From TrEMBL:
GO biological process, one term: putrescine biosynthetic process from arginine, via agmatine
Free-text cofactor note: Binds 2 manganese ions per subunit.
Organism: Bondarzewia mesenterica
UniProt protein name: Agmatinase
Signal peptide: 1-18
């Protein structure tokens, strides 16, 4: 009883003490309250800036425009979403990929984009980079959706660039019309979206080489489903490169990176080479190393215009689970980023990240990886050569 009485006395004392010091308004606001005038946010705190976790959902908080309907917005590089997933063979869901990748990019920002890896900030090179939103695609008619994607991509390719950067030298102009065209980084969507993209690029550049990061070849021919064959059904996320080859959209100097899928046999590889690809397998990173992989890829592509397509399943599903056709034993995110760094200086005309299906993600790990890879794409496109190793740029000193 004595203990209880002591406790109540102590509690009452603390309560009284706490309430004897009530909070008062900030000094800067007191005058406004006394005068009866409310001070505005702008006069007191300044602009309504977006935090890394607030604001409209644009990639890396870029300026967002509906570029397909508004031709007044010029740009050098556009981010464009293609929310399409009705040609998948296993798990659908990549129609939510563009939104997922944008969400994964929230901690990225143009005001804080310099990295040790690249030694530069892609947003501070005088290049105009904007988010052009998503293409409104039909989820019911694949033939219609493919045409919508092609028209959208061609519309943006035809725009005038905003500025001429230091990389716009004559040797970097491959377009048939001799002009510099903007570059587009596409957010997929399943991998089928690359077919209409290559069709659009072909109108401007002719056949292009392709660097294809993927666990799968995607050069398989027509694989009909019994009882449901049609011309349209032959175009899937596993056959689109074969169709692109039939249409003459690619040069004969393309390369796969990260292949590890199951196949029917070496006939699949023979067909792959006929379509114009050479394979860098997942295992090659252990057998020949990253630098040799980069050397072979650069030698294969040479000086030709090249399109880079990255299926997120090239990364091991333990690190990027949110994808439609996961394959165990993939590269790490760091290894993929390291190879991309080694490709800088090639003549890129566009790039994409595809097959991100957020419904299968955990803590946004796949979306964050995809967004970070796209940041590397920006640096890659705006670099004339691969960045030197950090120790060569700034040799280590014991006294530092």
């Amino acid at each position: 009883m004595k203990l209880t009485s002591t406790f109540l006395t102590l509690a009452f004392t603390v309560f009284a003490h706490a309430h004897s010091h009530e909070q008062t308004p900030l000094a800067s606001g007191s005058a406004a309250i006394d005068s009866g005038e409310a001070e505005s946010w702008l006069s007191k705190y300044g602009k309504q800036v977006d935090l890394v976790y607030t604001g409209p959902l644009a990639f890396s908080h870029l300026d967002y425009h509906r570029c397909l309907e508004d031709a007044s917005k010029s740009f050098d590089i556009a981010v464009l979403g293609m929310p399409f997933d009705t040609a998948t063979s296993y798990r659908p869901g990549a129609r939510f990929g563009p939104q997922g990748i944008r969400s994964g990019s929230r901690r990225q920002h143009g005001e804080r984009a310099w990295t040790i890896t690249w030694g530069m900030d892609p947003y501070r090179l005088g290049t105009k980079i904007i988010d052009c939103g998503d293409v409104p695609l039909s989820p019911y008619d694949n033939a219609l959706a493919l045409d919508q994607m092609e028209v959208a991509y061609s519309t943006l390719l035809a725009r005038d660039v905003a500025k001429n950067t230091s990389l716009d030298a004559p040797e970097h102009v491959f377009a048939k019309d001799g002009k510099i065209h903007p570059k587009i980084i596409t957010l997929g969507g399943d991998h089928t979206i690359v077919l209409p993209i290559l069709r659009s690029l072909n109108k401007v550049y002719g056949p292009v080489s392709v660097i294809h990061f993927d666990a799968h070849l995607d050069t398989w021919g027509y694989l009909p489903v019994p009882g449901s064959t049609s011309d349209q059904s032959r175009i899937t996320h596993g056959s689109f490169f074969h169709v692109a080859w039939e249409e003459g959209l690619m040069s004969n100097s393309s390369v796969h990176a990260g292949i590890r899928c199951k196949m029917t046999g070496d006939t699949d590889i023979m067909n792959d080479e006929k379509v114009g690809f050479k394979i860098v397998s997942t295992d090659d990173i252990d057998d020949i190393g990253v630098n040799e992989i980069i050397r072979r890829m650069r030698e294969r592509i040479g000086d030709s215009p090249v399109y880079l397509s990255l299926d997120i399943d090239v990364v091991d599903p333990g690190l990027a689970p949110a994808t439609g056709t996961p394959e165990a034993g993939g590269w790490t995110t760091r290894e993929v980023k390291r190879i991309i760094r080694g490709l800088a200086g090639l003549n890129f005309v566009g790039a994409d990240v595809v097959e991100v299906a957020p419904a299968y993600d955990h803590a946004e790990v796949t979306a964050i990886a995809a967004a970070d890879i796209i940041h590397d794409f920006l640096s890659m496109m705006l670099s004339s050569e691969p960045p030197k190793p950090r120790d060569e740029r700034a040799p280590w000193r014991d006294e530092l």
